[in-house]
Amino acid sequence: MLGNLSVSLTGLLFWLIMPRLIGLRNLGEASEIISAAMLATTLVSAGLPLAVIREVAELREDGYVAAAIAGFGLAVLAGGLATGLASLLGYQGYSFFSFLLAFLSLSSMP
Predict the structure, then answer these.
(1) How far apart (Å, rounded) are the C-alpha atoms in residues 50 and 56?
(2) With contact defined as beta carbons under 8 Å apart, do 58 and 64 qualify?
(3) What residues make up the domain containing 79?
(4) Are 100 and 78 in contact, with CB atoms under 8 Å apart?
(5) Do the domain assignments include residue 71?
(6) pTM for this structure?
(7) Cα-flanking dihedrals φ and ψ of residue 78, to 5°?
(8) Predicted confidence (pLDDT) per residue in 51-97, tens digit
(9) Would you say residue 10 lies in a domain?
(10) Cβ-based neighbours of 104, under 8 Å, separated by 6 or more
(11) What is the mean pLDDT of residues 41-59?
């Protein structure tokens, strides 16, 4: 409960402060790129946490290695999809950041 409250308050502060610091247009562009990366991550990672739990429980160390390899491959796939989405939106110059955000988001999943 306290964690949700702190996340919500931090988000509120972010949305109150950032438009004044970087401008509405830049904030909108950043939001589009972040949304593209999160969409790619969500599409690619569907079922990944459950698969990792199942594989590690069943195969122990071998399952962990297999899940890590699969997770890395899916992270690269999510990054590629995010890059394509960013380019489709007209942000070719930010494709690397979109890739990196999707890759790191998926890589951080258990």
Answers:
(1) 10
(2) no
(3) 23-107
(4) no
(5) yes
(6) 0.74
(7) -65, -40
(8) 778 777 887 777 778 878 888 888 899 999 999 999 998 888 888 88
(9) no
(10) 75
(11) 82
Give me the helix-helix angle, 2-22 and 24-44, nearest 10°. 140
Dist. CA 40–CA 85, nearest whole Å? 8
Please indicate, yes or no, if residue 92 is contained in any of the structural domains. Answer: yes
21: Cβ–Cβ under 8 A, 6 or more apart, which residues? none
Structure letter (DSSP) for residue 109: -
Distance in angstroms (rounded) separating the CA atoms of residues 41 and 104: 9
Residue 108 has pLDDT above 90, yes or no: no
What pLDDT score was predicted for residue 110?
Answer: 61
pLDDT-derived band at 30, boundaries 50, 70, 90: confident
Where would I find the H helices in 23-94? 24-44, 48-59, 61-88
Task: State whether residue 90 is helix, strand or coil.
Answer: coil
6-9-10 Cα angle (round to 5): 85
Domain count, the chain: 1
